[in-house]
Specification:
Layout: H1 2-21, E1 32-33, H2 38-47, E2 51-57, H3 62-72, H4 75-84, E3 85-91, E4 97-99, E5 105-107, H5 108-114, E6 122-126, E7 132-137, H6 142-154, E8 171-172
Helix pairs in contact: 4-6
């Protein structure tokens, strides 16, 4: 009887695997881990008619996880991000070596310090020449992220980006 239960469990696992593998493919994560070469990723984004958006994060960063979940729950936000940006995640843990958007070799922590990242999550919006266009540090809801995208795309940094009803987070524009 025990052998029969083991065999049935094995068949059920195989059937589940086959059925789920033939279902609709899940969309890839929006913020994929960086290759470590932000210059090449920026060039690829530019060739595709988009810009580079980098998310600085850390493993077990609660606000980072909430940000990514908010994005995943908003089809409109995902559509706009995919249309306008190549999105990559740079995990600061372990301080990996990276090539910045202009081609200089550095470390992730030194890059974060050079752009005044105030913590995680931090979003870095780059223009097609590799210059930092805008930096935002802190959590966002999907609606706030949509407002941030509109703000960055307008490019009018004379007024700070304000989340409704809250003080302005730490941010930087060139």
């Amino acid at each position: 009887m025990k052998t029969f239960r083991i065999a049935c469990a094995g068949w059920m696992a195989l059937i589940t695997l086959v059925v789920t593998s033939h279902g609709a493919a899940a969309a890839p994560a929006l913020f994929v881990p960086t290759s470590g070469n932000l210059q090449a990723e920026r060039q690829q984004a530019s060739a595709d008619g988009r810009r580079l958006l980098v998310l600085f994060s850390l493993a077990d960063c609660g606000p980072c996880e909430r940000l990514e979940k908010a994005i995943e729950r908003s089809p409109e936000l995902k559509r706009r991000l995919r249309a306008s940006y190549k999105t990559v995640r740079l995990n600061l843990a372990g301080d990996p070596a990276v090539t910045d958007t202009l081609g200089a070799r550095t470390s992730a922590v030194k890059l974060a310090a050079s752009v005044h990242a105030a913590g995680t999550p931090t979003l870095l919006f780059f223009d097609n020449d590799g210059r930092l266009q805008f930096r935002y540090s802190g959590p966002l809801s999907a609606d706030e992220f949509l407002a941030l995208l509109a703000y960055v795309q307008r490019g009018d940094y004379t007024q700070p980006f304000l989340k409704e009803g809250r003080p302005a987070p730490r941010q930087r524009s060139p």
